[in-house]
Each structure stands twice: as C-alpha cells, then as structure tokens.
Write a structure and sequence with these properties.
Layout (H helix, E strand, L loop, with lengths): L1 E6 L4 H13 L3 E4 L7 H13 L5 E6 L3 H7 L7 E3 L3 H9 L5 E5 L5 H12 L10 H12 L5
Helix pairs in contact: 1-5, 2-3, 4-5
Length: 148
C-alpha cells in the first residue's frame, strides 16, 4: 500500500521511528513533513492526498492525535480515526473503513504505536460487515444524499 504520513513538529522523532517500520511491513511511505506548527495544514494535505486516491491510507501524528484527527476529518472523503489500542486499530478499518489513523506521540509509546500501525495496515474493510449500513450512512450524509 501507498501510505501518506505527516505530523506536527512535536512528533517528528516519533514519525521518524515509524517510517522505517512501515517500510519493513512492505508499504511505500511518503513523508508529508513535520515542520509546520499549524498541524491542520499537514493533516489537510495528507487528507487530500488520501481522499484523492493518490495514497491508499494515511497516518497523522500530533501530541494527542486529537487535533490532526479533527483537521483531517474536515476533508471531504476522509474518515480519520484516533487509535489508542489494538482493538481500536482493528475496528478503525474493519468496522469503520477509516482511511487515516491518527496517533498521539505524547500519549502513546513508540512500541505500542508500531503494533497499532501493523494492525491497522494489515486489515481491510469488509463492505458486507454488520457496520456497513453505518458507514454508508456517514458517506451519504457527506455527499448530501441522505435526507433523513
């Protein structure tokens, strides 16, 4: 898979440890940077690249993972999920079809982060799962199709 990754300046070292690990898992990784203190700019750039199908998935990192998650979710076509444990990493993909995962460098240890990334990137959404109607509803709302 082609993975877009980016972070704010506070998470640079964290991201630099994840990139070679993601490559070891067999994925192509493009670094969208970490110099911009306005994390929303990086989150939006990664979000647009993923929503535009230039990349298969994205990983965003800031101190808590919350800010980049909020920013990325403002991009049409993005479903970003803040992941803190293995179950969330699995369900982000299996139940929610999240195309971006976010992590908090100041609240998640690097070894746990590697486990989370491996789980998230190792799974594929099943459009026939029991959560499919929920995912469709979100997509319909985003497209302005659903009128309730």
């Amino acid at each position: 898979m082609k993975i877009a990754i980016g972070c704010d300046p506070n998470a640079t070292e964290f991201k630099q440890e994840l990139i070679p690990y993601i490559r070891e898992l067999g994925h192509e990784v493009t670094d969208f940077g970490s110099d911009d203190p306005i994390y929303a700019n990086t989150a939006i750039a990664v979000g647009e690249a993923v929503a535009g199908k230039t990349y298969d998935r994205g990983i965003l990192i800031c101190g808590t993972g919350i800010g980049v998650c909020i920013a990325a979710n403002k991009v049409k076509g993005v479903s970003a999920a803040l992941v803190n444990n293995i179950y969330q990493a699995q369900r982000a993909q299996l139940s929610n079809n999240a195309n971006i995962m976010t992590l908090g460098a100041q609240v998640t240890g690097i070894e746990l982060a590697k486990c989370l990334v491996k789980e998230y990137l190792g799974l594929t959404y099943n459009p026939n799962c029991r959560s499919a109607e929920k995912v469709v509803r979100i997509s319909e709302y985003e497209k302005g199709v659903y009128r309730g």
